[in-house]
Amino acid sequence: MRDFFKRIPEQALRILTLFILLAAVLFVVRQFIIPPELKDTDLQKISSMEREAAREVKYAGFHICSECHEKEKNIKKSGYHRDLSCESCHGAAQKHTENPTEVKPSSPRKRDYCSYCHTYNSSRPTGFPQINPHTHNPMRPCITCHNPHNPVPPKVPGSCAACHAQIERTKVTSYHALLECTVCHNTPEKHKTTPRVVRPTKPDKREFCGKCHDKSAHVKGVPTVDMATHGEKYVCWQCHYPHMLGGI
Amino acid sequence: MEAAHGLSELSKQVVGFIYPNEIEIHWSILIVVYPYITGLVAGAFILASLVKVFNVKELQPTYRLALLTALAFLLIAPLPLQLHLGQPTRSYEMFLTPNLASAMAMFGFVYLWYLMLVLLLEIWFEYRRDMVVWSREETGLRKWLHKVLSLFSTDISEKAVAFDQKTVKIITIIGIPSAFLLHGYVGFIFGSIKANPWWSSVMMPIVFLFSAIVSGIAIVMLLYMIIIPLRGAKIDMKCLDKIASFLFYAVIVDFSIEVLDFIHRLYESEESIKILSQLVDTKLFMSLVVLQVLLGMLLPLGIMIVIKIFRLHEELRKLLYFVSAVLIQLGIFSTRWNVVIGGQLFSKSFRGLTTYKLELTGIEGFLMALALLIIPFIVLAILIKILPPWKKEELAGQ
Amino acid sequence: MDRRDFLKNLGLCIFSGGIIGGLSADAWAKLIHKDYDPAKHYYGMGIDIDKCIGCGRCMQACKTENDVPIAPFYFRTWVERYVIRTDHSVSVNTINMGVDEPSDLFIERDVLRSFFVPKLCNQCDHPPCVQVCPVGATFKTDDGVILVDSKRCIGCRYCIQACPYGARFLHPQTRVADKCTFCYHRLVRGMLPACVEVCPKQARVFGDTKSFASPLGRFVRMNKIHVLKPYLNTEPKVYYANLDGEVN
Questions:
Q1: Is residue A46 part of a domain?
Q2: ipTM, 2 decimals?
């Protein structure tokens, strides 16, 4: 053993000692001095999950409101807003459930809030009721005519554009601009009040379009084709988009 | 609120669509400086290894300078990272609970390994004999400094010195892959991000490494050409020409790899090619096409080819080497910029580009980056004072 | 000490370490929140593109519930609007929480397809963000939610770079990484995430894949499902129905 140490040059021994000393210090610090919460990843994860779980809840949730507000719930439950959570319009209400008399949720009463959903935007799916805020009763709060808990329009919509504005705006620059929607789509009256239950019809045969567009039809100013040969095997709307003609 | 105002200014300069959270460029100029610095470390060390492992005797005058340069830059390397962290006081966590799946987690360990077990150890063994001699000849503070640094060692017999030299060679051999790891892992940090097609590439660590070698060799060449005349000695032209040769080969390899990457991207023409082409044509035109490629690589290459063909005389060669080395530094810094900043300028939706606003002041501003680039030279000056690289030779020359 | 003693001590250490490890694993279940057991749940979300009306209530509710800075540069969830024109050019923008949405920048007849796409952290099963965090501050819980430990995050932003969906951001005040947590603090109380709570059209559907019947279970049965960037193999747990190929 001693021979082995003698054969190592003294400088190597010095540097080796220094490094071993450093390593030992690091080892002692890491194993014994540093507390477990800084080293153990499982403990840290649990701690983090606990802190995350302890965050304050701001939105109370859709069940809670009806426990006290039975009246509104009954009004809402069969209207168009039945699936709309109370807090979507009234804001976060957890604090209100904890202190109902002193903390009140907000209540949008002007025109601005309803616009978030109901202002016309061409990217919204068709059938969603949208209005042009500049022309639809400008300046009047929406709740003047629409009960927000059951927002049935005061009058049955006269035009399809009330809910199908994007189609209307497309159609109005097309060759079919002067055609009423009902020319092609049979629309029962009930569709205007229960739109998802009762649907309009759509044409299902080539002959329907042929009534105006076949060469035998002789309607003034309407382009005609020989329905017997033109696009045979397809129905017309597989190629032509009837709301917007000329191009597609 | 001020930050939000700055961001709303930035959002006006967005081209196309970016994900809303992408408005902020997260890895700023400090993260450009960091790989630049570690690149210099790796490259300088590789130059030093050419002397010890590959026995390129002409480069001996630059050996110790290269080691000291590597150390000076290595000491500063953690600073940009520390300054950039959102919570710098927590950086110790990387040592206590590193996530072994993360390339970034190896920073602390690779850095410590390289600093303690490669660079410092090599410098110690290289300088030990001289430190013992100096501590005997000097007085006062310097005497004690060298005594302590040599760990109170006394044996300077031929046998001991031979042992030192052998150890240096072994450490250098271990040091070469260590240097590759020190800088290559940074390349891997970028190259392993599949979310970002500008970064995600198997060649990224290789590109980083070779541009590191180029910049490291060039910085040692530059420093050699500046310091030697300042000390009143004569530049060894054989040494300088040899360095320039190695620089030339390194630039050719680096350039080939980058051209290969470029051709490969254009040929495969993946989904990201449109936005990346737009990125290079608009936001990165100056820094990539002009600075990195033309001025940083092609021009120095051309200069060195001219020197090789026409055998110009000494003074002209020195001037051209100097100019090339400076251009190369600019070029490699631009390379880092184009990788780091460039990769964040386009949206991951591939539909838009954003802007990087480099502040002048502030913790991640231009002045801070400049300071971080200047401080290593100050450290180097101190190191040269404590551990002079050429005292022996100059004394011998007299 | 000699070799035998050393091996005995080593064995003892491994044995006791194993017991401690086993004990702490059991400790998970009881510590998070009352009797919530993370191992009994596994969450996912479904989003029906055809239902989203782009009202931005989800963006608003998320900011309220999770104390996200109001400025429009930090989002845990956001909604993108896509307009694909007949010349096949695509315009995308993030909606401005429904407030002063341009009523339209597009002429309807130029539009081929147009829709809204809600986006959020996909809570991937194979998350690239967890892989790259150098200190393990972000991690996947047993119930499938990716959390960020705000006390351990060092703010290196590697996770933000690694997320292919742009779901993460750096919180301007705490200077750590932040992102959607599926409102974890609501999940442990059996509530829905805030964005799901307030969505007027139930475009967002939330579910526990370990529960016998859930809205998500039905959603993934009745719709053709797509996820964002499947080729990156992140295995997202946010499932999109009717997702257009232009969305990325």
A1: no
A2: 0.92
Nearest alpha-carbon partner for C98 in C48, C47, C59: C59
Q: Which residues of A touch C103 (CB under 8 A)?
A: 119-121, 132
Q: Side chain identity at B370, as an amino acid letter?
A: L
**Together in a domain, A165 and A240:** yes
Residues A205 and A234 grouped into a single domain: yes
Q: Supply the pLDDT for residue C28.
A: 46
Strand order across the beta sheet in which C204-208 lies: C204-208, C43-48, C238-241, C225-226
In 3D space, the residue among B207, B314, B31 whose CA is nearest the CA of residue C157 turns out to be B31
Q: Is the pLDDT of residue B231 over 90?
A: no
Chain B stretch 209-268, residues whose beta carbon is closer than 8 A to a beta carbon of chain C:
none
Q: What whole-number distance in Å separates Cα of residue C2 and Cα of residue C8?
A: 10
A242: in domain: yes
Domain hosting A69: range is 62-144
Asked whether residue A126 falls in the same domain as residue A172, the answer is: no
Tell me if chain B has a CB within 8 Å of the CB of C96. no
Residues A123 and A192 in one domain: no
Q: How many CB atoms lie within 10 A of CB B214?
A: 30
Longest dimension (CA), chain C: 88
The answer to pTM > 0.95 is no
- Contact between A84 and A108 (Cβ < 8 Å): no
| Number of domains chain A is built from | 2
Assign C110 to helix, strand or coil: helix
Residue that finishes a domain, picked among A113, A144, A175: A144
Residues A163 and A242 in one domain: yes
- Between the two ends of chain B, the Cα-to-Cα distance in Å is 66
Q: Report the C-alpha gap between B329 and B262 in whole angstroms.
A: 21
Same domain, residue pair A71 and A139: yes
Distance CA B84, CA B143 (A): 39
Chain C residues lying within 8 Å of B22, measured CB to CB: 166
What is the distance between the alpha carbons of residues B358 and A32, in angstroms, rounded to a whole number? Answer: 45
Same domain flag for A139 and A181: no
- Alpha-carbon gap, residue A239 to A248, rounded angstroms: 7
Q: Where are the beta strands (DSSP E) in chain C?
A: 43-48, 77-85, 90-94, 111-120, 138-140, 146-148, 169-170, 177-178, 204-208, 225-226, 238-241
**Six-digit token pair at C129?**
């963000």
Asked if residue A194 and residue A128 are part of one domain, the reply reads no
In a domain, A218, yes or no: yes
Which of B96, B123, B168 best tests the A interface by mutation, with the highest count of A CBs <10 A? Answer: B96
Q: Evaluate whether residue A49 is within a structural domain.
A: no
Indicate the residue type of B317. Answer: R
Give residues 350 to 369 of B whose Cβ lies within 8 Å of C.
350-351
Domain boundaries, chain B: 8-397
Taking CA atoms, A9 is separated from A28, A56, B13, B52, B101, in Å, by: 29, 66, 66, 21, 41
Tell me, what amino acid is at B152?
Answer: F
Q: What is the pLDDT of residues B354-365, one digit of tens each?
A: 999 999 999 999
Q: What is the pLDDT of residues A43-93, one digit of tens each?
A: 999 999 999 999 999 999 988 998 999 999 999 988 899 889 999 999 999
d(CA B193, CA C129): 10
Residue A33 near chain B (CB below 8 Å) = no
